[in-house]
Amino acid sequence: MILRLAIGSLRARALTVGMTILAIALSVALFLGVEKIRTSARASFADTISGTDLIVGARSGSVQLLLYSVFRIGNATNNVTWDSYQDIKARPEVDWIVPISLGDSHRQFRVMGTTSGFFEHYKYRGGRALEIPEGHGLEDLYDAVIGADVAASLGYSVGDPIIVSHGLASFTAHDDQPFRIAGIIAKTGTPVDRTVIVSLEAIEAIHVDWQTGAKSGQITPREVIRDMDLTPTAITAALVGVKSRLQVFGLQRWVNDYPEEPVLAVLPGVALQELWQIVGVAETALIGVSAMVVVTALIGMMAMIFSSLNERRREMAIWRAMGARPSTILGLLVLEATLMAVVAALLGLGLLYLGLVIGQPWVDAAFGIWLPIEPPSLRDLLALGVVIGAAALTSLIPALRAYRLSLADGMMVRI
After folding, report:
1. What contacts 314, CB < 8 A, 6 or more positions away?
2. Which residue, of 215, 240, 266, is where some domain finishes?
3. Same domain, yes or no, for 63 and 14?
4. Do 15 and 82 belong together in one domain?
5. pLDDT tens for each residue of 275-332
6. Where in the cell is it found (predicted)?
7. How far from chain centre, in Å, is Cα 172?
8. Is residue 145 in some structural domain?
């Protein structure tokens, strides 16, 4: 009976109730959407590198090593000598090792020297390998493979020439040894998209005529350089895969105690967690803002109920005259608010999935964040339950006011 009264009352005020439900639904969709993006961004962030057991570089901080070796942010404090790299490579625990050399750039994009093993062993997003839909990998000394963002930003295509600049903010270019774009890597949503990849030997080749960070004035023909021994003397870092996960900590300890030079080995997952904790403040602030939007919508619902009380005084007085107890009126108002919250929660959930279906491909292509479309998690259902419960509690304030309205006040005609 009271349910039918509540539904009938809501229908009688369809426009006002509909606008209130829409406001709450949008706030619920925003809250759940922020939570979905937060968890998806965290997963995508953690999936930037997968399948790599250790990252080895010069001794510094684990986050710093992760930033410059994986995210191309910042610079290494020092290099790792080639001899040390060979010693680590010779360890029986090592299954594969990929050296990387950083330091040069191309129009603000980092240039990374590595081997063909990088394309074989670098994995992201749970084990996905790099794909080169256009062109091929590093086959010639002066081949360059560029990421999707580099190609899109600079309008490059396979076969275009590309000149590497010395350092990150240098006006000096290695224009005497231009590269040719051999391939373009498919979009990954990782720092690889913003990287120009050349061979480790190519990094040595373009610095043949350089001494102490400046051009020597001598120009060695490219044909002569091709015949030279271009084995590097140092690298920036190395990605390491071990034969057994049980050997990771033993190898890490051996590298960190390496007596020949100070080097550091970090677990990518642990370093990623440390890095995520640093940006966790912004994450918390984002959740707080979206929660405040929900609270504001609930306050708006309470204001709507308050404003309708004066219009409904006579209606409530008639119910009292027909035998309805004050608690019935209180329960009616709470039930109306709860029904609105339930409909708003379901509508907000529907809006969220509609947004995911529409925005998933665009967000993945633009930001590299994969938004999975899956059933609501227990956390989502709990959040919806909290919203519905908060709506019921919020409605108690105007409901208690209505509870105190006297029958005489309702029947009195005001002039």
Report:
1. 410, 411
2. 266
3. no
4. no
5. 777 777 777 787 788 788 888 888 887 887 777 777 777 777 777 777 778 778 888 8
6. Cell membrane
7. 35
8. yes
